């Protein structure tokens, strides 16, 4: 028969789990802090999509049609982290936004002569 309190065993195991979770979370923070400090690192489309909060297909569209600087490696693309941030910052300029919104209309007007 068991003479000890069964809750003590549960509390000990919970303490062990808490120590393990704390250790894993501190290790995860160290791993994430390392690569983010290098602005010249290359990131894949998945990371770039997470940064700009868009789907991967949209980031691929940005590469093809909106001049997002990228390097093609095989069938995939790599983007320099600092260039991605500069490219995103470029769209915060009000002058550029106004010009980019008007230019498609002007190109259609020139094409059809109206």
UniProtKB/TrEMBL annotation:
Keywords associated with the record: DNA-binding
MF-aspect GO terms: DNA binding
Name of the molecule in the record: DNA-binding protein
Source organism per UniProt: Deminuibacter soli
Source organism phylogeny: Bacteria, Pseudomonadati, Bacteroidota, Chitinophagia, Chitinophagales
């Amino acid at each position: 028969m068991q003479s000890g309190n069964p809750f003590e065993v549960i509390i000990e195991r919970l303490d062990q789990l808490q120590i393990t979770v704390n250790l894993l979370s501190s290790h995860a923070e160290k791993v994430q802090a390392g690569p983010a400090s290098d602005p010249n690192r290359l990131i894949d489309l998945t990371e770039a999509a997470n940064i700009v909060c868009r789907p991967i297909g949209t980031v691929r569209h940005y590469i093809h049609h909106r001049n997002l600087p990228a390097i093609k490696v095989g069938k995939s693309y790599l983007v320099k982290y600092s260039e991605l941030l500069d490219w995103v910052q470029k769209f915060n300029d009000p002058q550029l936004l106004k010009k980019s919104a008007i230019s498609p209309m002007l190109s259609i007007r020139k094409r059809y002569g109206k």
